[in-house]
Design brief:
Blueprint lengths: L4 E4 L3 H12 L7 E3 L4 H11 L2 E2 L2 H7 L2 E4 L3 H11 L8 E4 L6 H5 L8 E5 L9 E7 L5 H11 L3 E5 L5 H9 L1 H18 L4 H22 L3 H8 L5 H11 L2 H23 L1
Parallel strand pairs: 1-2, 1-4, 2-3, 4-5, 5-6, 7-8
Antiparallel strand pairs: 6-7
């Protein structure tokens, strides 16, 4: 925790990273944020006791520079910020869809880059964060990135070539679960349950099922079969899911998300 970290563009995910680092014991005097709006800067200073500087000053003061802006804003940001980042500093990108090659054109030769995809359960310290080494990133840089993001949940290393698939699966993944819960809540109401009762039943069932899947080490098929009795209610429901092509729809949805991630990269390269 001897490194000074600057979060450039401390919006929702950037603030979650700052909060997680502080909860993990990272000293507040080694954390820096930047914000576009003055009122946002004041809020971050008052809430976390950290420094809020200009982009250029933050880059000069930090050892690690985490870029947490929207992908469409990254080009303008890096045009201004790139000349202020010496080659010895580590750049970490949280910009969805942007490959490390996007950043190399703005940076001095030899600057190490790491690409990170996390997700919104970071807000409750249950994120899934995928970390990929880009150009000039060493094992030590990867370990530092893991140290930064492990307070937010679980981390995993993947080749950068898999990051678009990660974006489709876990980056966007929470939205799919919320969509499913919304649909199941409506189904519960159709079956005669009050909305809150249906919601509570589904949410706790989802939590319990996820914990069983994580902690048991069993394949999901085996866990599903344990609930699926011959000629019972569950197999009747699963037959309807298969008849309506739910599995195929999920495959198509994730492919669409993956393809959109590639389009975002192509539009910004």
């Amino acid at each position: 925790m001897s490194h000074t970290i600057a979060v450039i563009g401390a919006g929702k995910i950037g603030e979650v990273l700052l909060s997680g680092l502080l909860k993990a014991g990272w000293p507040a005097d080694r954390l820096i944020a930047t914000a576009r709006r003055p009122e946002r800067a004041v809020l971050l200073q008052e809430r976390y006791g950290i420094r809020v500087l200009s982009n250029a000053d933050a880059a000069a003061a930090a050892d690690v520079i985490a870029i947490a802006v929207k992908p469409q804003d990254a080009g303008a940001l890096m045009t201004d910020l790139g000349p202020h980042i010496p080659a010895g500093k580590l750049l970490i990108s949280l910009c969805a869809g942007l490959p490390t090659s996007f950043f190399t054109k703005y940076l001095a030769g030899g600057t190490p880059i790491i690409r990170v995809m996390t997700n919104t359960p970071a807000l409750v310290d249950e994120a899934m964060t995928a970390i990929s080494a880009g150009p000039h990133a060493t094992a030590e840089h990867l370990e530092l990135a893991e140290e930064m993001f492990s307070p937010l949940g679980r981390t995993i290393r993947v080749p950068e070539s898999q990051q678009d698939a990660v974006t489709a699966l876990s980056g966007s993944g929470p939205a799919y679960f919320y969509y499913l819960v919304e649909a199941m809540t409506d189904a519960g109401i159709l079956l005669g349950l009050p909305r809150q009762v249906a919601h509570d039943l589904i949410v706790q069932t989802a939590i319990g099922s996820a914990i069983m899947l994580r902690d048991s080490g069993e394949h999901p098929v085996k866990l599903r079969e344990a609930v699926t009795s011959p000629a019972g209610t569950t197999i009747s429901a699963i037959r309807e899911l298969e008849n309506h092509g739910v599995r195929a729809a999920l495959l198509g949805a994730l492919e669409a998300a993956r393809d959109r991630a590639k389009e975002i990269a192509d539009q910004n390269l």
